[in-house]
Amino acid sequence: MNTALESIFLVQKELLKQEDQGGQFSIDLFSHIKVLEIIENLNDSTVFSFCFLQRFSNLEKIEMVDCNFKELCPYEGDVGEKRDVTMLLPRINELTLKGVDKMTHLWNRGSPLHHICTNLQTLRVYKCGNLINIARASSALRNLTTLEVGYCKEMVQLITSSKAQCLEQLVTLKIGGCEMMREVIASDGDEATYHEIIFKELKCLELKGLQNLKSFCSGNYTLKFPSLDDVTVIDCPAIENFCNGALSTPKLQEVQTGRDVRKCTWDLNSTIEQLNKEECDEMSEETDKNGGHKENHVR
């Protein structure tokens, strides 16, 4: 019977002990760990050590909850040492970030975390209050199949058009509660170079509670979703269309809304535009009924 420990979580004091004193656990124990949770690392001066992660040779998943990292896993050392450490790090397939509030970008291309996430399949980001977008990390997300982003209040866009090409393996994309988001894919002004964006594997797209979302993509690109058959758009009152360029969704037959299941009689763009028109008509009717004053409804 295999009784090896496969999951471990460390709070701030224990993380510091592992980094500063070499830890109290054997190397053999760490080699069996598949899931590492780092919880409530609130010390601004704490540097997450890459050397520490070398012990987790079979690590598959990292979860960071309520941490104060401004940049994920910074490494302090000379260039040669950094390169040697990076090559010994495990490559995970799942990363979850919750309440990592001071982080504005996931990581830069030169960061050792870029190496760790090369085989990443699932990325979940919740309540990261200062995260702007995921563009800088995009080149490490080529194998990503599931991306979930929720309640990142400063995020205006998910990714830029040139970086979106890296998400070609994505199967599921869910975005919710990002109150400042205006579009999912922002134009780099590169329509001449990247005139076509293809999400060849995307099957499920969910947009919920995006109060300022105007469009999935406002640039003049051709968007192709050859596998998309599950779309949900709920509580996105400002949405005007899905995209400004040509759009192909050959397998999509309906759109889930907060009210009903809407058949895609024409195409996704026309369906979104119709939903927007109905929303505007209802708001106009409410205003007329209330003598020119709009009522606010909690959804």
TrEMBL record:
Q: Which InterPro entries match?
A: At4g27190-like_LRR, LRR_dom_sf, Plant_NBS-LRR
Positions of the region Disordered?
Answer: 278-299
Q: Where is the composition biased (Basic and acidic residues)?
A: 286-299
Where does the source fall among the domains of life?
A: Eukaryota
Which stretches make up the Disease resistance protein At4g27190-like leucine-rich repeats domain?
139-241
What keywords appear on the UniProt entry?
Plant defense
Q: Which SUPFAM superfamilies match?
A: L domain-like (SSF52058)
Q: What is this protein called?
A: Disease resistance protein At4g27190-like leucine-rich repeats domain-containing protein
Origin organism is: Gossypium arboreum
